[in-house]
Amino acid sequence: MFNRNDFSHNGGKHYTDPISYRYNSKYNQRGGRKNYRPESNRNGDDVDTLMVSINRHLTTDGNPSQNLSSRRYVTKHTQDRRPTRPTYQLKKAQINQTGWWRVTIQQAGTIGKERVMSTLKAHCPRQFQPYHYFIDPHTKAGVFFVNNQQDADMMKRANGKIEVQNLDILRIMVGRVSAPIASMDEDLRPHFKDYLLSRRFNKQTFQLDLSNLADDEDLSSLGIFPQFNKHGFIRDVVDIINKDLPMTRQLDLGSNNIMNLYEFRNLHLNNLVQLSFASNQLKHVDNFDNLKHLSQLVHIFIKNNPLTLPNNKCNNSIDDIISIIQQKLPQLKRIDDIDLTPAIRFATDIETIKLPKSLPHYVPNDMQTFLQNFIEKFYRLFDTHDRSELHACYHDLCMFSLCITKLEDSHVPIRQYKYGTLILESRNLQFGTDNNKRISLLRHGKTAVLDFLRFKYPLTKHDGNSFHVDVISTTNNRAVFTINGLYKEVDQNTNNPIRCFQRTFTCAPTTAGILIIADHIMLSNAADAQIEKMTHSSTTSSSQDLNNQNNLNTNIDIQNQEMVQKFSRQSGMNIEYSILCLQQNNWNYDKAAEVFLDLHSKNMIPTDAFNKS
Fold this sequence. Notes:
One of its GO terms (molecular function) is RNA binding. The protein has about 625 residues and is α/β, with parallel strands linked by helices. It is about 35% helix and about 20% strand. The protein has helices at about 20-30, 45-60, 70-80, 85-95, 110, 115-125, 150-155, 190-200, 215-220, 230-245, 320-330, 365-380, 435-440, 445-455, 530-555, 560-570, 575-585, 590-600, and strands spanning about 100-105, 130-135, 140-150, 170-175, 200, 205-210, 250, 275, 300, 335, 340, 395-405, 445, 460-475, 480-490, 500-510, 515-525. The strands form 3 sheets. It has a 7-stranded mixed beta sheet with strand order 5-6-7-8-9-10-11. Helix 16 (about 560-570) crosses helix 17. The chain starts with 17 loop residues before the first helix and ends in a 12-residue tail after the last helix.
C-alpha cells in the first residue's frame, strides 16, 4: 500500500492542487522572492505538528528534490520575517473558504461503500465529514460532498495516491457545486421523517409546517439540505407526507424557493383544506392545474410570488390571476385574504359526468291533450302554401326569432345544404356583433311575425314521426315547451334540403284561446342518419296511407262510393277529405255539405284538402 509520506510517487507534484501552483508561480518564480508561508517547528514527538507539516507539504509543490537544508532555509527566513497581517488573513480566508464540493471516486460502486470510505479516512491526514454518499447508477462511481475547501483540497491531493488492498488505486475527482444533490439517500430519509414528525407536525391541529426549511440548522446538522427547486427533493418530501402524514389538514410550504408545482400532482391528502405557497418563485398560473385532485382544498396562499407582482410575466392583474385559479380549482373559497364568490362554470373538464336518470323528454298528463291538438293544428297550418291561417295562433304582441347554427366541424356526418338568403335573418349571437342588427332581426307583433313566416321563411313539410316534445315550464300561467324534429323544404327553386329544428314556444291563455306569445326557431342541417331515417319513415307512411286508402275504398259500398265522388265534385275537395267529411257526419250528405259550407266560409279548411294531385 502506498505511504503518503513517500513524495516520490507519481512525480511528487500533484497536478490538481491549485494552491501549490499559485505559490510556486507567485512567490518562488518572481526574482527569487521568498516563500512567506508560515512553517511550524518540526517536532517528531508532536503528532499534531507532524500532521500539519505533512499537510502543508502536500499543499506546496511537493518536489522530491527539495532537501532538508532548503527546508531549514525556508523555516529560518519565515521565523525572521513574518508576513504582514492583511496578507496572512487573506491566505487564511482562501484556505478556510466554505461552500460545497462534489467528490467522485471512480469504480467505488464495485469496490463497496464501506471499504472505500474506511480506506479513504485511514489514509487522509485529518478527519472529514462526507455528506449524501450515493452510487451513480450509470458510471458506478461513488459520490459524496464536503463543505469546506480544506477537505476538498485534501481529496484532490489523495487522487491516485491511495490504493485499496488487492484492488485498485482510487481515482478521485473534485469539483465545486452550489449545493449537494437534492434527493435523499436511504440513510437520511428516516432521519428526515423523524424530524418532520417530532419538530414540524402539530398533532392537535394536524398542521405540517415546512416553511423556510433551507435555513433550518437542525436539518443541516443531520446532513440534510432542502432544495425545493429540485424535482428529486420535492418527490422525496411528497412521498414521505403521503406515507407517514396522510392525516395532514394544513400544509405550509412558504419561503422554500419553489419554482413549479409539477411534483405536487402526486400529493394525496384527502383531508387537506389549507395550503400555502407564499413567498416562493411561482411564475405561471398554469402550475395550479397540478392541484385539481385535492377536492377538499378550500384555502390557498399565493402572495409574494412573481406571478402576483404587478409586472408579472403574463401582465395579468391580481383579480385576473385569482379568477383563473378559481376556474382551475373551483372548490376554493379563499385565496390569501380574499373571500371568493362561487364560480359559474361548465363541467367540460370532467371526463365522466354522472347525471341522475331521467326521461329523454317530459310532458305532464294535463298537457298531453293540449299539446297533441296544438301540434296537429299548428303544423298542419304551417305547412300550407300561404300560411295565412296562422293568424289565429299568435298573440297581437308576440315575438319571433331565428337562429341558424353552423356545424361544419361536427364529428357526425352532416349533409351541408346552403341556407340562401335565410342566413341573413339569423340572430346567432356567436357570429353577429352588431347590437342594432340583432334588435332589428327580433320580430315584434303579429303582423311582423306573419310577414316573415309567409314571405321569407321557406315552404316546409314536417315529419311528425320525428317530433320529440319536452315541457320546460307550466308556471305563472304560461306554458313553455320545445319541439325537436325534421322537415323538408319544398320550394321549387331548392333541392329539397332536410333541416333539423328545435322550436320553443311560450303560450298563454287569452279570451280568444291559448295563443303564442314567443316563438324561437333554431335550425341546423340534418345528419345523414336523420335523413335516412326520415326517408324510410316517409316511404313507410306513404305505403300505409295507400293501403289505408285502398282498405277504405274496399270497405265503402258502391252507394257510398258514388256519394264520395259526388261530394268531391261539388265541394272541390279530394277523395280523402271528402270521405273524412262524410264519415264525421255519419254519411249524411246534407249535413256534411252544411258543415263544409260553414267551415269554408270561415276559411278553416286546409288547402291540402283541395289538392287532388
